[in-house]
# Entry
Amino acid sequence: MNRLRRLLLAALLFGLAGLGLELLLMEHVEGFWQQLPIGVLGAALAATIALAMSRSRWCHRVFQTVMVLVALCGLLGVWLHFDGKAEFKLEIDPTLSGMALLRECLVGHSLPPVLAPGMMLLL
# Structure
């Protein structure tokens, strides 16, 4: 395995482990939808380690499939975070809609952070 590939796999391993640890430390474990990214990140860690240890076509396909799941999980997380935040913002101000609602959800300090799951897309 060449040096660049090892470096990229190491960076991916640290990113996956760090993001998974952050979710665990934030106690992101209430129900299936909060546990899903932790499970997917665990599968991605295992697939990345398997890919680093074996160059088989099967390991490569599993890795690709799991990384697609990581990206889909990130997109789903952005949607779920947006939906939760929109519900909260609409309880405060029921007149919000359209771009005003979108802006309120993206800007501000209330939880959940809408774009945080996007980190899974960046991995």
Q: What stands out?
A: The chain has a mean pLDDT of 93. The chain has one domain: 3-122. The two ends are 20 Å apart (CA to CA). Helices lie at 3-25, 32-53, 57-92, 98-106, 119-122.
